[in-house]
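Section 5.1 Outputs to date
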Amino acid sequence: MFARLFAFFLLTAAALTPLTAQEREVPYWASIRATELNLRVGPSADYKIDWVYRRKGLPVKVIRVMEGWRLIEDPDGTRGWVVQRLLTPDRGAIVIGEGESAIYADPNATSKVKWRIEPGVVGKLGDCEQGWCEFSVGNRAGYVPQQRLWGAGEP
């Protein structure tokens, strides 16, 4: 009996977590959960598809909530509606700016450069403090200046 109750609790918690995580005050950051995501001109599957994202992990800014739909803005400033379940609250970021950026061993420009990354690289965002953010791409991690990451800071 206890095992069944515990299993029910786990399944219920797992099912509700994505919904609760997406019910926040706007604007907020999210990332694309799906390998393919349709951007629509309105908040329904009846509206025309304006763009198709094929970049899992791409950060987006959620700027409006309507039932199961989210009005998002992407790093290029494009806006449109996506179905909420295909977004995740996991924070991601994309490298922006001109030329390569370094991933440093420590949060300062005098520390060792571990790797170099180009604009357009998408990765997982960690904590940001004093203008530096933890950033990982695959198994490579370090610190990147916050101004080089879209998706870091206040939305």
